[in-house]
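subagent[fold] <- orchestrator: predict structure for attached chain, return C-alpha cells only, no commentary.
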Amino acid sequence: MQPLSAPQEISSGSAGRRAASAPVMAAAALGVVLVAGAGILWAQYGTAVFFEMIAAGFSACF
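subagent[fold] -> orchestrator:
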C-alpha cells in the first residue's frame, strides 16, 4: 500500500512565533504606558483640564 501523502518535515515554529510576538509585546507595552500616562494626567489635573490638554495636543499635531 502507498501512503496517501508524502511524509512532511516537522519544522520548529516556536522561533517564528517568538519573533512575531516581540512586536506585539512592544505594542502592548506602549499601550499600557499611554493608558497609565493618561490616568496619571487625569488624576493630577482633573477631568476638565485633562480634556483641554488632550484637545490642545490634537490641535497642535493636526
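orchestrator: received. Logging for downstream: The mean pLDDT is 80. The two ends are 70 Å apart (CA to CA).
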